[in-house]
């Protein structure tokens, strides 16, 4: 069984995240673990606390067989480096089990700034979802990222499952317009977020007065 980790701030989780996670679960026949960051060093701290973000994720995946929430980066002290998380998972799953990290195209573009980024290909595959405003092909055509990903693109989920890591796979789904920053801005402006997040998440945000 392929294990797929989908990391992010999830501040809050939105329908775009869920569409990507569900598409990955279906296309890869994988268990997808949504992994909220605890202490990210690459961006400002999240607006909502770890426990609030975990609670919203749990509401969002309630009733789903294939999506779960992995709180290890919230529970762990210190920086939330993907390298450490993937190495820990590798220790749990063994060297041969296929393991993938799901990222949006904007996150893949920032990969050369990640901690020990070149070593990540030795630990897992990358599964990449397109995102509005990001030209993935252009970004992967040259530079450090282009050099690193050249020759790694795989054509199928079966090819991904056949190796423990080191490949990249494009995840095909319609472009998802949502972003957490737009959700936060809408809440702060008193606008509706009903089309951007699941009803239970919207209710949680209102009940706890988040993002005002
Ligand atoms: N609409 C989307 N389509 C595709 N990928 C997405 C989308 N929203 C988020 N992602 C991806 O999900 C992961 C986690 O994203 P994150 O939790 O930072 O959400 P965000 O919407 O980008 O937040 P913010 O607006 O605060 O930057 C990243 O890999 C990101 O690229
Ligand atoms: O390990 C790193 O240095 C690193 C740097 C940037 C992003 N990441 C991971 O990438 C995932 C998406 O993060 P973000 O902020 O780009 O949405 C999340 O799991 C982060 O922990 C990881």
UniProtKB/TrEMBL annotation:
<keyword id="KW-0520">NAD</keyword>
<dbReference type="GO" id="GO:0005524">
    <property type="term" value="F:ATP binding"/>
</dbReference>
<dbReference type="InterPro" id="IPR004821">
    <property type="entry name" value="Cyt_trans-like"/>
</dbReference>
<dbReference type="GO" id="GO:0004515">
    <property type="term" value="F:nicotinate-nucleotide adenylyltransferase activity"/>
</dbReference>
<dbReference type="InterPro" id="IPR014729">
    <property type="entry name" value="Rossmann-like_a/b/a_fold"/>
</dbReference>
<protein>
    <recommendedName>
        <fullName>Probable nicotinate-nucleotide adenylyltransferase</fullName>
        <ecNumber>2.7.7.18</ecNumber>
    </recommendedName>
</protein>
<dbReference type="GO" id="GO:0009435">
    <property type="term" value="P:NAD+ biosynthetic process"/>
</dbReference>
<keyword id="KW-0808">Transferase</keyword>
<dbReference type="Pfam" id="PF01467">
    <property type="entry name" value="CTP_transf_like"/>
</dbReference>
<dbReference type="InterPro" id="IPR005248">
    <property type="entry name" value="NadD/NMNAT"/>
</dbReference>
<comment type="pathway">
    <text>Cofactor biosynthesis; NAD(+) biosynthesis; deamido-NAD(+) from nicotinate D-ribonucleotide: step 1/1.</text>
</comment>
<keyword id="KW-0067">ATP-binding</keyword>
<comment type="function">
    <text>Catalyzes the reversible adenylation of nicotinate mononucleotide (NaMN) to nicotinic acid adenine dinucleotide (NaAD).</text>
</comment>
<keyword id="KW-0662">Pyridine nucleotide biosynthesis</keyword>
<keyword id="KW-0548">Nucleotidyltransferase</keyword>
<keyword id="KW-0547">Nucleotide-binding</keyword>
<comment type="similarity">
    <text>Belongs to the NadD family.</text>
</comment>
<feature type="domain" description="Cytidyltransferase-like">
    <location>
        <begin position="5"/>
        <end position="185"/>
    </location>
</feature>
